[in-house]
Please model this.
Amino acid sequence: MDNLSRDLDRARGRRDALASEATTLAAQIAEIEARLSEEKKRRERERVLSEIELIKTRIKQAAGAFAPVVDGLSRAVESAAAVVPEARELNSFLVSVATEVDSVLDPLLRELDQRADAVRSGHAALDLPSSAVEAPPIELPKDTNERLLRFPAWLSRDKEADKKETAEKPHSTAA
Model:
């Protein structure tokens, strides 16, 4: 009976020691998990901030490439207006596009800065679409004769195509 009592006391002592060790390990695991979670959040914030900076850089590069192209095209169109007066419409369009782009760039860049500040302070979601940074950087063409602006088909005013369509569909004047 004394042996059983001693065995029971030793078993209870080992149980208590293991329980204490398990509690200590659980606390250590919780602390490590919290640190890991914070590190993941910090890295994700850094990634999002880096991507926002990349977006801003791409916008500034594109704007820097856009302005000289519009200026050069506007000057060329102005020269063409001496021969084709309708070219002034294109020049007016170019000026309005350039003005509109210029008027929205600063607010857009400020909004990106505000989003970056919100990410830094932890008040913003860290979801950033991957397509936001996939586009390649803007490169200026090396050949100045290379066509810089390609207008979509709907914007083109191809008068030759209009003339061909008119010739192919004669108007019926039968009475």
Q: What stands out?
A: The chain is about 70% helix and 0% strand. The longest helix spans residues 2-80.
